[in-house]
Tetratricopeptide repeat protein
Amino acid sequence: MQRWPAGLRPAGLTGRRDGVELIYCAASFGEVRVVAYPAREAGRVDLRVVPNPRLPEAVARRLSAGVGRVFAHSRADALPWLRRVLARCEAFEEAAEPGLDAALARCAEAATRARSDEGPSLPAAAVDALATRLPEAARDELEPRLALAHLQLCAGQLQGALDTLGGPGQGWPDVPAADASAESPRAAARRAVLAGTLGLRDAAIDHARRFAALARTTGELEFGGRLCAHLGLRDEACQQYAALIRVAPRPRHLAALLRAAEEADADGRQALAELAEHLGDDPLPWLPADLRVRLGRTLMELGAYPLAELQLRACAATSPDAAGKASATATLARARLWALDLDAAETLANEADDPNNPEHATALMVLGAVACLRGEPARGLDALERAHRLRGDDLEIRNWRVEALLRAGQPDAAQAAALEEGYRSAIVRQLLRVRLAAIHAARGHAAPEGPRDDTDYIHRTILRQLAQPLAALDADAAEAMTLGPEASDADTLAAVELALRALGGNRSNHLSLVGESDGRGGRSLHPAREVWSPRARASELQHRLLFEPLATVRERLAELVATYPGVPYGETYSAELLLWEGRYAEALEVFEAVWQRTHQRWSYVGSAAALHFLDRDDEALARWEEAATVHAFLPEEATHAYRSEIWRKRGALEAALEAASLAVEATNTRFGAWINLALIERRRGDRGAAEAALEVVRDNLQVQLALVARAEGLTVDDALELESAPVLLEALLRAMRGNRSSGVQTLVDDRGVLRIFTQRHLEGWTELASWCSEWSIHTLALLEHPSIGVVDVGQGGRGVVHDG
């Protein structure tokens, strides 16, 4: 095992009835498999390399010779060892009597079918048979118990898995920790999946990171990428997929890496950049044109501009696919627009101006932007309107369209475009709003976005953030963009104009600044990643609860408040976490302070909610009445869900129904409102509507319902019958504390631990559990064959090796 041929690293081995397969990883050829088997000539071992289209025949011969020399060095031990393994394999695979082996074989066959998409995941009957044949003593051992719970989850037996983990009866089940020094990859994977299913996010993340550190085979690396991405560990996911692509390049692996990289931090971006450098600009048979364009676009948006252009130029020059060539050309035109290389951008965009081009909207946007920057807004607007019709949700196109309307002297149309649905998350939009406000002020009236609009801190914060990286490129402009408290409207407008010039031709949310000449007709690009809209930043920090401990998230929000004391979102999003924990008095104190100081929207939502959960409903309703004189309530805000619960409690069922209906129609993932709607409709006597709402709850909150039912000593199926449902639904609302979010779902268990759940929670974790089900089957196989060690060898691999 220690004498691998040069240039290869060991990845595992698997025993088969016809030989032992040795698995290596080689950077140039991917996975290399060599089968060793007893030769007919006594005392000798024969070898053959499993065919691999990427492995030249001459290299295969050299590898066989290298492995042969390893066996020759230890011939006295190698042959007896090999024969023992083959005998064990034969005995293991030909278990004649029905028992644990037969049940395991049935599960393994089902798992293989599921992995190859030939059938469903593990059938419940197979797992039931396995559970009944599991020795009683094994149920007292931790790893077999966790393995069985894992397989029950794969079979859709959530209640059985909870009972296996926590024993029949009441209480919140847990996943016991393992000895980190002795934890195997399979055990870490199993714990991560089970902890994640139970909402124990911190434990799931801990085990996922351990698994990623231990992953070696292609199967482990791919699962590690999936697991880390599912948990929001984008950096770790990028590293797993980048390592996997180096030894087993597949389009699906790169697609997964790009998805993870879009939200990765520095480590993930570095992993992608290093991989792109490794891939170079050579034509790669395994890399389709559309994926190479996507690689270039992702690198560009992450700030790796030279590598992005390298990939895009390679695709435009060598792709045999006309659509891929056109897409690459349009995306390359966008890159040159960002760098203010207007001639090259226009030439490339004209080449890509083809209705059959998948990136036709990008080409039109570039043509429109170039025209605007050259002082021809009318011509630019025509191209941008066509681009907007093709891809109306693209923030970069929408920003350029608003800017073109302003340059063309159409402020009313620009105002309407700036207020369109789904556009508020655009960073550049906040700067363009200052231009709009100046134009409206010059015309003698305001540019309202609602009854109240005192959000100057938004564009001031963006300008301050942009000034920091700009200082190294243009110190005077950076100083002018850092506005003091007494800055006039004229100062603000001048700062915005400086900022837009510094952005060059980039109006995306992936901001970049232009520097000196790049020697190719444009200017050098410098990423400005740490620029964000204040509310988006606070929301993103709160969202980190999915992959960081609660205390860390709270610290990050506190840092936001300290750095930008005039921005209220850090305080309100932090106070919302207090609501989720049930710390209502503390939450009220924060929300009240922000409301009295700023009258900001989210402060009244939280203040009234905290009052409600403190049983001060009259004060909560009064706060909403006061807020209505300042703000128009948004359909998507949580106010309607909270007010609906107050009115249901008071018996005002029609008012409660109206508010709950508005809440779920505006945001159909606000499941607290769906629970309340089911309770309202049942009390109103509308069985059909109550059943419909209850069905939404059943379909989306399976794990939460099972956990709360178990804690309350109830059976889910019985408790969710319409007549008895209120007991469980009310208990579920209590466990949710003050969380009526439409995104992250939480429960507080009997230890005060915040359990965290995401959309499609059970479905997502069951998919992951099924992907690695063979590993738990292997663990249980050891109960029948304790002298057999089991080694996973990757996708669908099942193998055994003698422990001696």
